[in-house]
Write a structure and sequence with these properties.
Elements lengths: L1 H7 L5 H31 L5 H28 L4 H20 L6 H29 L5 H30 L1 H20 L10 H5 L1 H7 L1
Length: 216
C-alpha cells in the first residue's frame, strides 16, 4: 500500500493535513446538530413556529456573508499568517461556546442572538481557513487535495447525521450540544498544531514567489 501511495505521489504536507482534519471535525460537529435543529427549535424555544426556524437560518447566513467581507479584507492586508491562525482559532472557539449555550436557549431572542454569534464565528473561521489552505496546497495536487477535503467533509457530515437522531432519542438535546461543543474543542486543539508550521511571510511571497523574484 505504501508503495502504491508513493507511486501515486499522494504525499501531503502537514499544514494541509491539519487543515483538512480541522475542517472535517468542525463539519462533523455542525452535521450532528443540523438534522435536529428544526426539531430543537420547535420543541424547546417558546412560541417558535416554522417562520422562527427560517429566520434563525437566515440570520446566520446573512450575518456571516456580510461579516466575512471586512474580516477577510483585514486578513489580506496584514503580513504573516499568525493573524489567520488566530482568526481560525477564535472562530472555532465561538462555535464551541455557541453550541454549549444552546442548552440554555429558551426564547426566540436567545436563539437569534446565538445564531448571530455563530455567524460571527463562521466569518472568522471560513476566510482564513480557505486562504491558508490555498497558500499551502501542494503543487500538482490541487484537485486531489481539494477533493480529499470535500470527501472527508462529506463522510464526517454523513456519519454525524446518522448519529444525531440516535443521540437525541436516547440522551436528549443537551447531550447533542455537549458533543458538538466538545468536537469543536478538539478542532481548536488540532488547530494549535498549525502554529509551528506557519511561517511569517508576506501573503504574496507565499502564493506568488515568481512575481517577487522578477521584481528583484
Amino acid at each position: 500500500m505504501v508503495n502504491i501511495l508513493k507511486r501515486l505521489n499522494l504525499k501531503i504536507n502537514n499544514i494541509v493535513k491539519i487543515l483538512i482534519a480541522v475542517m472535517a471535525v468542525v463539519n462533523a460537529a455542525d452535521g450532528i446538530v443540523a438534522p435536529m435543529f428544526a426539531i430543537f427549535v420547535s420543541q424547546k424555544i417558546e412560541g417558535a413556529d416554522l417562520t422562527t426556524i427560517g429566520y434563525a437560518v437566515a440570520i446566520y447566513w446573512v450575518a456571516k456573508s456580510i461579516l466575512q467581507i471586512p474580516i477577510s479584507r483585514y486578513l489580506d492586508r496584514t503580513k504573516g499568517e499568525n493573524d489567520d491562525l488566530f482568526s481560525i482559532m477564535v472562530g472555532i472557539f465561538i462555535f464551541a461556546m455557541v453550541y454549549f449555550l444552546y442548552i440554555f436557549a429558551r426564547t426566540k431572542f436567545d436563539l437569534f442572538l446565538l445564531q448571530g454569534l455563530l455567524a460571527f464565528g463562521g466569518a472568522l473561521f471560513i476566510p482564513p481557513w480557505f486562504a491558508t489552505f490555498t497558500r499551502h496546497i501542494d503543487r500538482f495536487k490541487i484537485s486531489f487535495e481539494w477533493s480529499l477535503n470535500s470527501g472527508l467533509i462529506g463522510v464526517s457530515i454523513a456519519g454525524a447525521g446518522a448519529l444525531s437522531g440516535i443521540i437525541v432519542s436516547k440522551y436528549g438535546f443537551n447531550a447533542l450540544f455537549i458533543i458538538a461543543s466538545s468536537a469543536h474543542i478538539i478542532a481548536f486543539l488540532a488547530a494549535l498544531l498549525l502554529y509551528k508550521y506557519l511561517v511569517k511571510l508576506n501573503h504574496a511571497e507565499k502564493i506568488f514567489p515568481e512575481m517577487l523574484m522578477q521584481k528583484k
